[in-house]
Amino acid sequence: MNVFEIAIRRRSVLGAASRIAGVAAWAGLFGAGLALPFSATAAIGQPEPEEKVDATLKRLFGDRKIQDGASLMKLDTQLIAENGSLVPIRLEINLDPTPQKHVKTVYFIADKNRRPMSAKFNLSPALGRPTVETNVRLGESTQFRAVAEMNDGALYEVKNEIKVTVGGCGG
């Protein structure tokens, strides 16, 4: 037996083992109900094809009151987005999280998009002071809001107006 035969056998065994471990981990997560895409969709419901922002807020938060979050977080957006296909968003949360008080979930909502909820982020107190950054698409000039849901269910929001010169959602 030469060195190449041993290397090929070793790779085959390691590759098969990693595939088996991946399938087992996948089956364990989905079997335990921990799969985020399915549980998140079930928890927040399905959006309508052309949903207004009020309907989105009602679907996500029910009748809970949303308070001003300017002291809790800072939303950085462009004043004018030349291309609505790629609009950078940055949210800094100014709270030292503890297991008793922390931001559990952050929602990015563009009021005039056909489906206003642009993104959802689940956070952990182990992250420290989180900063959330992403790019979103905006179909037209809109009010953009970040809503933070605390672990006790309290809701806080910050808003910025973004002017879009060329829409990015098509249609």
Main attributes of the structure:
single chain; alpha+beta; 171 residues; 6-stranded mixed β-sheet; 3-stranded antiparallel β-sheet
How would you summarize this macromolecular structure in one to three sentences?
By secondary structure, the chain is an alpha+beta fold. It is built from 3 helices and 9 strands; from the N terminus they run H-H-H-E-E-E-E-E-E-E-E-E. A hairpin with a 4-residue loop joins strand 8 and strand 9.
Architecture overview:
The chain is of the alpha+beta class and about 170 residues long. The chain is built from 3 helices and 9 strands; from the N terminus they run αααβββββββββ. It has helices at about 5-30, 35-45, 55-60, and strands spanning about 65-70, 75, 80, 85-95, 105-110, 115-120, 130-135, 140-150, 155-165. Strands 1, 3, 5, 6, 8 and 9 form a 6-stranded mixed β-sheet that branches. The chain has a 3-stranded antiparallel β-sheet with strand order 2-4-7, with no helix packed on it. The model is unreliable at about 5 and about 25-40 (pLDDT under 50).
Class derived from helix and strand content: alpha+beta
Number of helices: 3
End-to-end distance, in Å? Answer: 63 Å
The tally of strands reads 9
